[in-house]
TrEMBL record:
Residues 72-94 are annotated as: Disordered. The lineage of its organism: Eukaryota, Viridiplantae, Streptophyta, Embryophyta, Tracheophyta. It comes from Vitis vinifera. GO terms for biological process: translation. Coiled coil: none annotated. One of its GO terms (cellular component) is mitochondrial small ribosomal subunit. Belongs to the universal ribosomal protein uS19 family. This is Ribosomal protein S19. Keywords: Ribonucleoprotein, Ribosomal protein. SUPFAM superfamilies: Ribosomal protein S19 (SSF54570). The keyword Iron does not apply. One of its GO terms (molecular function) is structural constituent of ribosome.
């Protein structure tokens, strides 16, 4: 997959650029732009990233810089594994 060219820089939504200047407004803020890149200015902020149904709380650390916001808001539900069947249920025919 081709990457974004270097001379363009990383994509950050205009809404987030305004919020970056006022750091206190970014704390616990809802973000709908999953395609925006995380810049170093967002480190140590807690944001809520919208995944299409509910906002998911995410703490931005130095390891997440350069990634997209959408990488940390999964849109799929986790299915429990079928191997852990409780003691009340028996496998096989009735």
């Amino acid at each position: 997959m081709p990457r974004r060219s270097i001379w363009k820089g990383s994509f950050v939504d205009a809404f987030l650029l305004r919020m970056k200047k006022k750091r206190d407004l970014l704390l616990n803020r809802k973000i709908w732009s999953c395609r925006s890149s995380i810049s170093p200015d967002f480190v140590d902020c807690s944001v809520r990233i919208y995944n299409g149904k509910t906002p998911i709380r995410c703490k931005i650390t130095e390891g997440k810089v350069g990634h997209k916001f959408g990488e940390f808001a999964s849109t799929r539900k986790r299915k429990p594994s079928r191997t852990n069947i409780g003691p009340g249920r028996k496998k096989g025919k009735k």
